[in-house]
Here is the input.
Amino acid sequence: MSKDDSDGDDLMDFVEEATGGSVDPDRAVWRVLIIDDEKDVHSATTFALRNTEVVGRPLEFMHANSAREAREVLSKHKDIAVILLDVVMETPNAGLDLVAVIRDELKIRDTRIILRTGQPNQAPEIEVIRDYDINDYKLKSELTQARLFASLTTAIRSYKQIQTIEAGKRSLNMIVSSCAQLLTQKGINDFAQGVILHLSGLLSITPEGLICVSRKGREGDQDDPRIIAAAGHYVELIDQPVTDLIEGEAKRVLLECLKIKHHVYRPHGIALYLGGQERDMACYVSSNAEINEIDEQLLELFCSNISICADNLDRVDRLSDYAYKDVLLNLPNRNALLDEIDKFMPKSTSERGSNDFVLGMLDIDGFSEINASLGQDYGDETLKVVSKKLEQQFSDGAYVARVANDTFAVLGESNKVNAELLLEPFKYPLIIAQEEQTISFTASLVPLCDVDGGGSEAIKDAMTVLKMGKEKQRGVVHSYDPAMVNEAIGRLDMLHQLRQAYEHNQLFVVYQPKFNLQDNRITGFEALVRWRDSKGQLILPENFIPLAEKSGLIVKVGSWILKQAVATLSELHNRGWSDCHMSVNISVVQLINPGMIDMLSKITDDFGIDPKFIDLEVTESLAVKDLNASLVLFEKIKALGFTLSLDDFGTGFSSINHIQKMPIDRLKLDKTVIQGASSPDGKDIIKMIIEMAEHLNLEVVAEGVENGDQVEFLRSLRCSLAQGFHWANPLDAHALYQWLEEYK
Ligand code: C2E
Ligand code: CA
Ligand code: CA
Here is the structure.
């Protein structure tokens, strides 16, 4: 696009311009195609117009001696401004036929056509002139040098106008489609890159430029403009402040543009102001092309469209910030980590072998206690300090994210992310709220090549290893072990099956009699749950009770067991075993359930059983875990009339102090302690425990008694009660009734 500075259309121009100097090969020209079967016409025309400049450009002539030849030239050159066309050539209508080909077949619309004939009777119909957009019609005799020039000037001016309008249309189209395209770009940087390219396209120049942005702060302050996208030799400047640009036109023009908030046009470059609601944005492109009025209007339109696009994009950016950033810590969140892992996840088995990326996950030990005891603010502060430490530690090439409350993840290659590096920043106390604080972490490490699936599977695996690792040992890094993850998956599967088993009555209760060691009388029974799965396989409680406890299912299952046990006891009382009691194992999860006390009294009421016949067995380790809370509950249970036994005694760390405080009636010596009776040391332990129990006024129940030696030894120590295979295996209700009939 170049400025049209030739306004005159009279012959004087011709005279002046015709005297102009020689043609510069680099200058733009107007191409004129002469089509005529008379050699003389060609030479006469070129001679008449030699050294002529029209509408600011010299002419370049092309020649065709027939319609056929012309067709060939025209199919190769679409940029011909004017055709001087002879009507009569190989046929009387050859010229007019060619016009039809040019417009309809070759679809050349911009090129102007001047028809020339030798005779007035060869003139075309007026319809032809109109339909084929013919510029002029002249008799060859009329075409003097001056007339030829005038006719050509009008045609070229018209050609130029058409081209400008066409270019304008194309540019408008481009602006509309660029905005649509640009909006699909991810993020402002890609968008800005697109703007440079589209703008260069619009100006038909090679992309050479940059875009800078300065964000407006909340208080109206503004940060220094930074370069967010660039093309051509500016590419290396991305991410740098504009002030770092070497002194020169680009810098000057850009800063001026941002200052006056308006476009700046200079001979070697233009800066367009792309302001917006939350930022100032400007685009600079190097361009030697002259910018005319139409260009300016188009650029104006382009800029205002781009500005709106950018505002929308800011909004999208902010939304995606929310979706991908942790607001408290300004760290990537789980979503962001997912995407990041997916980038590095091996896509094939062959890639698997060479993939060296690992996902580390860290979880603060006892964070909920920190939060509960020192407050939420302190908790937040802790997280901030921890995240800063992690960012510092893994600033070089690893990716740090927050995936859950107090759980962080680090993704990187194995030389950058490993067990030692994960816990290193926390070897020494951190400064939290001006105080030194030691924070301990448990962590897990999962190589991506071991993960079956994508990012979400990787996170799941790392979480599983972390969770299971926490149960095993805190404060260390647990490495991925497929068996561990399978176990967890198995657990989940089992939980599902356990729920079904409970709902489909696949659980049942067995009873093991308890004996008075002194007189061999049956004093009671212990209820123990069993699960027979759909394949008829018996599953023992130690394989599913912990799962039921973890999932909370134990609350429902536990009340059901209690109901079964009380029903059986009621039946036993009816059958004559009226002074016998029933022991039921109660898990701590049940105990702390708020409905527990009501449930207990309801069941005994329903069956008309005095609670004194129901003995609740609670494991020592669990009771001690939260002693004070347990004590309160124990008191309530005792107040209802139930008796309490401390189960698994001798397996944990008992303190006489604790036991003294508990309102319990019995100690149940664990079977592992009883098994120890074969050694002198083991014997001593049993002896000590029984003496202590006597001292504390507690009855002792020996569990897992399997042989006569054990019976004799326990009896010698005046142990009161015992149960075990020596007398009977746990039996289901019917088998028990039968067994008791025989025992009598
Ligand atoms: P526990 O309370 O210590 O139960 C005693 C375990 O010893 C029972 O295992 C019983 O079958 C087994 N046993 C009985 N006599 C002998 C013997 O002479 N030798 C040996 N070696 N073992 C004997 P079981 O039924 O597999 O139960 C395992 C654990 O599961 C129980 O330990 C208890 O902690 C838990 N459990 C069982 N039923 C329930 C229940 O209904 N609710 C709750 N919360 N836990 C239960
Ligand atoms: Ca028990
Ligand atoms: Ca036990």
